[in-house]
Task: inverse folding
């Protein structure tokens, strides 16, 4: 019986994510299950709009955990990602100490003793009370754990990866003035990348790798059904079939799942019951984001609509 337990657990992940509106493939559910079991971050790569960020949100909702998000960008540094000192509070306390200096040093018999007392106060100024926690440190501080989403890691500088290595491998961080802070409960860490730059081997070694590409047609139909409940079965099958044909073209940006959902909502709003070439032409700007892509697709619309309708009837 033991050999069937992992399979059942993976199916439970699929069901749990589906209950949050996230239709996961078997590969995605397996990666989530394994990440939980061996406490490793997941590096999720793939084109924009295929559900990488949504996966983190769905995991958090399913497991009832807080989600902490760090949006990466060029120039992101320790002060914005990990922690910074509350300088205004330190200055305020410095002023208070200055005003009370006589009282503080009143019992000191020698200069050495006075300096020692001042040194003790200096240590207080660099204590946890004066630390402003940023997303990475906040994730380690959660008493019941959390989902930490490090979004679009490929947009950050290569140097930022070095800051992450200790956190990703040991779920801890070293702060010179405070020592090592270890997570009470290791967070579930999801890193996403759109492939704008190659990530370092050291970061990749610390993560499970998961690539989310465009879903196969049946799964994408399930996603549309979940996210756009008012859509007819005929229209759902036809629009997904049409999009899969569009993705065979040489476009600057292929339509992703997020565009599929947006387009489905628009067609339902326009009270479409099936796909027609005139309606497709009128709404193609919802599906495609560049004028050159629209112009490249327009000559194929009639053919693609006919094929999508044919497959719907005979599929």
Result:
């Amino acid at each position: 019986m033991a050999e069937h337990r992992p399979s059942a657990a993976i199916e439970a992940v699929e069901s749990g994510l589906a209950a949050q509106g996230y239709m996961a493939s078997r590969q995605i559910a397996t990666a989530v299950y394994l990440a939980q079991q061996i406490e490793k971050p997941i590096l999720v790569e793939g084109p924009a709009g295929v559900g990488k960020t949504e996966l983190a949100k769905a995991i958090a909702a399913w497991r009832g955990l807080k989600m902490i998000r760090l949006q990466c960008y060029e120039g992101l540094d320790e002060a914005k990602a990990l922690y910074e000192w509350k300088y205004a509070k330190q200055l305020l306390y410095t002023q208070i100490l200055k005003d009370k200096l006589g009282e503080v040093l009143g019992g000191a018999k020698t200069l050495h003793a006075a300096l020692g007392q001042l040194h003790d106060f200096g240590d207080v100024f660099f204590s946890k009370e004066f630390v402003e926690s940023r997303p990475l440190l906040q994730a380690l501080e959660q008493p019941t754990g959390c989902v930490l989403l490090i979004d679009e890691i490929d947009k950050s500088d290569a140097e930022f990866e070095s800051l992450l290595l200790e956190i990703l491998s040991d779920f801890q961080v070293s702060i010179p003035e405070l020592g090592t802070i270890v997570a009470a409960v290791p967070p579930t860490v999801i890193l996403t990348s759109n492939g704008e730059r190659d990530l370092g081997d050291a970061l990749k070694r610390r993560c499970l790798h998961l690539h989310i590409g465009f879903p196969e047609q049946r799964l994408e139909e399930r996603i549309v059904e979940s996210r756009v409940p008012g859509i007819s079965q005929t229209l759902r099958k036809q629009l997904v079939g049409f999009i899969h044909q569009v993705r065979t073209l040489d476009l600057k940006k292929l339509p992703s799942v997020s565009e599929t959902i947006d387009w489905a909502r628009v067609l339902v709003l326009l009270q479409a019951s099936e796909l027609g070439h005139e309606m497709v032409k009128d709404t193609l700007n919802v599906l495609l984001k560049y004028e050159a892509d629209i112009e490249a697709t327009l000559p194929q619309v009639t053919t693609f609509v006919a094929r999508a309708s044919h497959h719907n009837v005979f599929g």
